[in-house]
Design goal:
Blueprint: H1 3-20, H2 25-39, H3 42-55, H4 62-76
């Protein structure tokens, strides 16, 4: 998809959430990031993240840039290791 169109769409999504979260720009950025994560097709999202990495989000509004930055940071974080609870010895097992 054309990156200029993705930038325009991301900015428009940001404008919507800026109106919803008038007093909390961080919450608005999280809402935009969640929308992109939930509703954008993975290739479209990957294209925006690549653009963000290469151009630091040039052309995005401050809110949209913060939102894509949140997605980018999450994509760079190592996956959380699954923790397995310690084994509990069976009743009556020696010791």
């Amino acid at each position: 998809m054309n990156i200029d169109l993705l930038i325009k769409m991301t900015n428009e999504i940001g404008e919507f959430f800026a109106g919803v979260e008038v007093n909390d720009p961080q919450a608005a950025a999280r809402d935009v990031a969640n929308h992109l994560r939930r509703d954008w097709e993975p290739r479209r999202r990957a294209q925006m993240l690549k653009y963000y990495e290469e151009r630091q989000g040039a052309g995005l509004t401050e809110l949209a840039k913060n939102a894509v930055g949140l997605l980018y940071a999450a994509s760079q974080a190592p996956p959380a290791a699954a923790t397995t609870p310690p084994a509990v010895p069976a009743k009556g097992a020696g010791a």
